[in-house]
């Protein structure tokens, strides 16, 4: 019975470690790729964010207007203004599709 409990405990520790390692990359990706413009809090109140008139991701109305597919496309392909000038660089293939999906979910968590 003691051996069975050790296996159970080891399995629980492995799942906990996996969950913690899963949570870190999305926050790390946000910090490394998004905060310069969107801010750590998602409000877009950085120097660059204000210049580009970025949306406040904590605003429920903004969140309601955003579609997950559109956010994923913007992260994947980047964003250009009406004149074709790059506003946001493309993050594919730098970020894997799963990381992009995770960033979309992360953005959703800013909703107030």
Quick structural gist:
The chain has 6 helices and 2 strands, in the order H-H-H-H-H-E-E-H. By secondary structure, it is mostly helical. Strands 1-2 form a two-stranded antiparallel ribbon.
Features:
6 helices, 112 residues, two-stranded antiparallel sheet, globular, mainly alpha, 2 strands, Cytochrome Bc1 Complex, Chain D, domain 2
Mind explaining what this structure looks like?
This protein is mainly alpha-helical and 112 residues long. It has one domain (25-108): Cytochrome c-like domain (Cytochrome Bc1 Complex, Chain D, domain 2, Orthogonal Bundle), CATH 1.10.760.10. The protein has helices at residues 2-33, 35-38, 47-51, 60-65, 68-77, 97-108, and strands at 79-80, 86-88. The chain has a two-stranded antiparallel ribbon. A hairpin with a 5-residue loop joins strand 1 (79-80) and strand 2. The N and C termini lie far apart (48 Å). Mean pLDDT is 86; it is low at 8-23.
């Amino acid at each position: 019975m003691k051996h069975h409990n050790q296996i159970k405990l080891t399995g629980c520790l492995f799942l906990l470690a996996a969950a913690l390692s899963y949570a870190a990359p999305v926050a790390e990706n946000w910090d490394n790729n998004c905060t310069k413009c969107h801010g750590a809090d998602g409000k877009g109140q950085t120097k660059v964010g204000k210049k580009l008139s970025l949306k406040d991701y904590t605003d429920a109305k903004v969140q309601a207007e955003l579609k997950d597919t559109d956010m994923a496309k913007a992260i994947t392909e980047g964003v250009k203004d009406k004149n074709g000038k790059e506003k946001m660089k493309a993050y594919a293939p730098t970020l894997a599709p799963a990381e992009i999906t995770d960033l979309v979910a992360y953005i959703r968590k800013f909703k107030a």
